[in-house]
Design brief:
With 402 residues, this protein is of the alpha/beta class. Helices cover 36% and strands 17% of the residues. Strands 4, 5, 7, 8, 9, 10, 11, 12, 13 and 14 form a ten-stranded mixed beta sheet that branches. A three-stranded antiparallel beta sheet has the order 1-2-3. Helix 9 links the parallel strand 9 and strand 10. It is globular. The protein binds D-gluconic acid (GCO) and magnesium ion.
Length: 402
């Protein structure tokens, strides 16, 4: 079998997605997500201009060799654009391998290690009282874990607080919109939200919170300590993680578990965090961390150090990525949690899939391969629209992490 064609499909059914579809000479096809929020066309060009020509004629069964070819062969290793492009190829080749074998991909990864993939949903609202209603909606839907984000008194907008109920999309303008941030206001407010939510919902519900890289290590240490009585499952991205040793400081002060990794692309981005046991959950994804092959390598390293998976699953990761994530999640020994932000109906229609939500769990498809596809004719009805993530400034105008 040979790769005959590979198409890069850019579409915007509610938001932008980049998808790679690989076609073999025997008519078997495979799909991979290649979406990098706000930088979509960079990956589309990387694939179309630099990767696709080298794929034509290759044996689609050689997944590992193709991964190494694209990684070592690019010379310029790592980085989000390269690793997202490699991920798309890797994911599509696993899809093809599953279809050729007549098995869902999780069977090729060792089979089920659990009955379902526990997911967490996003409850967000402008203030504490209204977020209680949102948490209750997720509990009614059967969710066992809920991420809670609220507005901060004195700030006009806050990361993670959606405009529409159950859908959150921060990439809102071609030229980035600007938000304002105050660490003082945030730190003064957030623990009281969790006190109220825990009080209302009792000890059984798993609660999570995303700090979105906005603190310094000592500030994160204080937040973690203030949150300890409310027993969070995790505090996510407390600080920007380029300085991995900075997490030692957080660790010295708090037992609130830490989750990190949605912007990481390789095992080398999280090696120290994992081997020094500075985090509890690693949140790397199929699409941004080199595909199923490389993500499994990260999770295997994590398993040796008591670190569990907690893959990012925001709406800017397409249903193709979600389908692939579920095959890994169900098979690895050290699964923790999977983020699940529901896609819009338009997105679901463009990416027909057979994974499903049931009572707080996502269940991967039983079809051969990944069990997801792209409807190219429908995708063509939603052309690309430039959209960037916002930027963030402190109240005095200083640029801050968004
Ligand atoms: C999350 C994330 C996202 C990101 C988004 C950026 O935990 O779900 O932080 O909401 O902001 O994926 O593209
Ligand atoms: Mg996050």
């Amino acid at each position: 079998m040979k790769i005959e064609d590979a198409r890069v499909i850019v579409c915007s059914p509610g938001r932008n997605f980049v998808t790679l579809k690989i076609v073999t000479d025997e008519g078997v096809t495979g799909v991979g997500d290649a979406t990098l929020n706000g930088r979509e066309l960079a990956v589309a060009s990387y694939l179309a201009d630099h990767v696709v020509p080298a794929l034509i004629g290759r044996d689609p069964g050689r997944i590992e060799d193709t991964w190494q070819y694209l990684y070592k062969g690019s010379y310029w290793r790592r980085g989000p654009v390269t690793m997202t492009a490699i991920a798309a190829v890797d994911t599509a080749l696993w899809d093809i391998k599953g279809k050729v074998a007549g098995l869902p991909v999780y069977q090729l990864l060792g089979g089920r290690s659990r009955e379902g993939v526990t997911v967490y949903g996003h409850a967000s609202a402008p203030d504490t009282e209204s977020v209680l209603t949102e948490v209750a909606r997720y509990v009614e839907l059967g969710y066992k874990a809920v991420r809670v984000q609220t507005g901060v008194p004195g700030l006009q907008t806050t990361y993670g607080v959606g405009r529409g109920r159950m859908f959150y999309e921060p990439a809102d303008a071609a030229v980035p919109s600007e938000a304002t941030w105050s660490t003082e206001r945030y730190l003064a407010h957030t623990p009281s939200v969790f006190a109220r939510v825990r009080d209302e919902f009792g000890p059984g519900l798993r609660l999570l919170h995303d700090v979105h890289h906005r603190l310094t290590p000592i500030e994160a240490a204080r937040l973690g300590r203030d949150l300890e009585p409310h027993r969070l499952t995790w505090m996510e991205d407390p600080v920007p993680a380029e300085l991995q040793e900075g997490f030692r400081l957080i660790r010295r002060h708090t037992t609130t578990p830490i989750a990190v990794g949605e912007v990481f692309n390789t095992v080398w981005d999280c090696q120290q965090l994992i081997t020094e046991q500075l985090v509890d959950y690693i949140r790397t994804t199929v699409v941004h961390a080199g595909g199923i092959s490389h993500l499994r390598r990260i999770f295997d390293l994590a398993a040796l150090y008591h670190v569990r998976s907690g893959s990012h699953g925001a709406t800017d990761l397409s249903p193709v990525c979600m389908a692939a994530a579920l095959h890994l999640d169900i098979s690895i020994p050290n699964f923790g949690l999977q983020e699940y932000m529901r896609h819009t109906e338009e997105t679901d229609a463009v990416f027909p899939h057979s994974y499903r939500f049931e009572d707080g769990y996502l269940l991967p498809s039983e079809s051969p391969g990944l069990g997801v596809d792209i409807d190219e004719a429908l995708a063509a009805e939603y052309p690309y629209k430039p959209a960037s993530l916002p930027v963030n400034r402190l109240e005095d105008g200083t640029m801050h992490s968004w």
